[in-house]
Amino acid sequence: MPRAGASVLQVLVHGYTYGRYYRDLPYQPETYSYVDRSTAAGIATLNIDRIGTGDSFHPLGATLTYDNHADAVHQVVRAARAGELGRATRPT
User: Fold this and answer.
1) How far is 69 from 74, CA to CA, in rounded Å?
2) Domain carrying residue 24
3) Three-state SS for 71?
4) Is residue 86 part of a domain?
5) What is the C-alpha to C-alpha distance for residues 27 and 88, in angstroms, rounded to an integer?
């Protein structure tokens, strides 16, 4: 568990053809999960799905631009810095 009030938050953003599972593989997570290892080391992480992948919003493909992806990640980072995200757990 990351320590309360950790001063660093790693925002994990996967590559274009991956999902958040790239850094949190459910297969043998004790071996293959970057998120689990970071958490065990006391490092706070926020592992997100980019727009159009995984559990995120899936708009029409024509609206998925690099600018939209960058803006969405920027909004997440801004909310994290402002303390507006709260505490979350891994989705089930």
Assistant:
1) 9
2) 9-81
3) helix
4) no
5) 22
Cα(28)–Cα(10) distance, integer angstroms? 22
Backbone angles phi, psi at 77, to 5 degrees: -60, -45
Q: Position of tokens 């089930």?
A: 92
DSSP letter assigned to residue 51: T
CA distances from residue 55 to 1, 3, 65, 73, 92 in whole angstroms, order as listed: 24, 27, 18, 15, 11
In this structure, is residue 51 part of a structural domain?
yes
Predicted confidence at residue 91, as pLDDT, reads: 58
In sequence order, what are the beta bridge partners of 46?
11
Tally the domains of the chain.
Answer: 1
Answer whether residue 28 is part of any domain. yes
Residue 36 lies in a domain: yes
How do residues 21-70 score in pLDDT, each as one tens digit?
878 877 888 888 999 999 888 888 998 988 888 888 888 888 888 898 89
